[in-house]
């Protein structure tokens, strides 16, 4: 396992791009907790904190595919760095003015979220150019998914540490400054400066004109819903089983399970079509959500949340490959950004649905939502298998030497036009 990942990290620029992307995404990974802590430190209400965090999340979901399309059109440095600076300035305005002036606070959240740079999609677009071998690219996708779990674990700890040692406003400023430096590290690298998307077919739908990509996004909307529901159900469970400490261990268990599963998955080369493998992984993911409804004691519950996370990173890593195979020519960054957006929206839906379910049926019913959402994701993949080109009536999507693999010209569109 270590040798496979070591081979990736020894490739020129690979470590720099991975670390730079993770650091650059730190503001986005920690935004929710940083916003809540800052608003509370300024004597704002939890409702206001939640509303501001929600506005930031919605703005991010809207901005990612739009900025991703601009990256495909104009390259990474011309889009990534300016957007990172503008996003950081939005958060800085929020930190200096505080939440009391509501119009300014909400405007700052819109700016900060809308201009969050699509570093995640950008990195996945760079991997084929940096690694060259398809097997190594697949391993890099798995390593990427694992690294996200580390970031989402370390990031909140960094924010809470800065709040404890300094202040909540300082935490906002420092984290966003670090994010700009991470984006800068990526865009000044040679692979980022040299990368160019393939000529694209002019169409206003962009990446969304791919049936396979639409099917994938539909499935991962429900995977995101499952994760959002777990976070709310976990709070309800912890209220009766030890409080915040238990909740922290449950979320850590979820991340640890994903980290272990992704590490093992990425350590070997997989044969067969990734579209079919994704169906199996999502089925296993949904199956591992089901035991959560048993709600045993705290130790058992932490173990079950770890089990629930085992197939998350492998499913994400496999989804990255599917996106790469089905993104229309010249839309690879936009396509990956749509996956980020869909997952974010799904998480928000799960979080919003989790609260009413807890109030209506209690904790066990809330933990039933992830299982149902996982089953819905599986149903979407099974029912849309023809869209992936792997059904009885379809062929497989063939790879090419280009970064974005689907190079077939589409009738009715003008090849090479920029749209």
Detailed description of the structure:
It contains 17 helices and no strands. The model is unreliable at 390-419 (pLDDT under 50). The protein is globular, with a radius of gyration of 21 Å. It is an all-alpha fold.
Chart the SSEs and their pairings.
Layout: H1 2-10, H2 14-24, H3 26-41, H4 46-74, H5 77-97, H6 102-114, H7 119-131, H8 134-165, H9 168-187, H10 190-194, H11 211-239, H12 244-265, H13 274-289, H14 298-309, H15 312-326, H16 332-361, H17 363-383
Helix pairs in contact: 1-8, 2-7, 2-9, 3-4, 3-8, 3-9, 4-5, 4-6, 4-16, 5-6, 5-9, 7-8, 7-16, 8-9, 8-12, 8-15, 11-12, 11-15, 11-16, 11-17, 12-14, 12-15, 13-14, 13-15, 13-17, 16-17
């Amino acid at each position: 396992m270590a040798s496979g990942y070591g081979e990736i990290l020894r490739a020129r620029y690979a470590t720099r791009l991975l670390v730079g992307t993770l650091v650059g995404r730190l503001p986005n990974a920690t935004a929710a907790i940083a916003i809540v802590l800052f608003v509370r430190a300024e004597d704002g209400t939890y409702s206001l904190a939640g509303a501001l965090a929600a506005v930031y999340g919605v703005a991010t979901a809207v901005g990612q595919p739009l900025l991703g399309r601009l990256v495909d059109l104009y390259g990474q440095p011309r889009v990534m760095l300016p957007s990172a600076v503008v996003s950081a300035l939005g958060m800085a305005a929020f930190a200096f003015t505080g939440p009391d002036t509501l119009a300014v606070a909400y405007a700052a959240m819109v700016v900060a979220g809308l201009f969050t740079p699509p570093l995640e999609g950008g990195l996945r677009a760079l991997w084929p150019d940096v690694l060259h071998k398809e097997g190594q690219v697949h391993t890099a996708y798995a390593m990427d998914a694992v690294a996200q779990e580390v970031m989402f674990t370390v990031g909140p700890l960094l924010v809470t540490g800065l709040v404890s040692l300094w202040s909540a406003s300082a935490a906002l400023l420092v984290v966003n400054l670090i994010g700009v430096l991470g984006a800068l590290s990526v865009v000044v690298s040679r692979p980022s400066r040299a990368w160019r998307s393939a000529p694209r077919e002019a169409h206003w739908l962009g990446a969304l004109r791919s049936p396979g990509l639409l099917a994938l996004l539909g499935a991962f909307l429900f995977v995101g819903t499952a994760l959002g529901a777990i976070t709310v159900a976990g709070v309800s469970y912890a209220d009766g089983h030890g409080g915040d400490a238990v909740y922290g261990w449950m979320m850590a268990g979820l991340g640890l399970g994903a980290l272990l599963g992704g590490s093992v998955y990425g350590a070997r080369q997989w044969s067969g079509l990734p579209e079919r493998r994704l169906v199996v992984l999502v089925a296993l993911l949904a199956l591992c959500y089901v035991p959560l409804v048993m709600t045993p004691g705290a130790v058992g519950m932490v173990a079950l949340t770890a089990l629930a996370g085992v197939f998350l990173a492998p499913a994400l890593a496999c989804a990255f490959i599917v996106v790469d195979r089905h993104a229309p020519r010249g839309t690879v960054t936009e396509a990956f950004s749509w996956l980020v957006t869909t997952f974010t929206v799904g998480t928000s839906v799960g979080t919003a649905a989790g609260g009413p379910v807890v109030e209506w049926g209690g904790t066990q019913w809330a933990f039933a939502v992830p299982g149902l959402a996982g089953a819905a994701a599986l149903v979407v993949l099974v029912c849309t298998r023809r869209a992936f080109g792997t059904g009885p009536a379809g062929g497989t999507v063939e790879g090419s030497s280009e970064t974005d693999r689907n190079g077939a010209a589409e009738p009715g569109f003008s090849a090479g036009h920029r749209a």
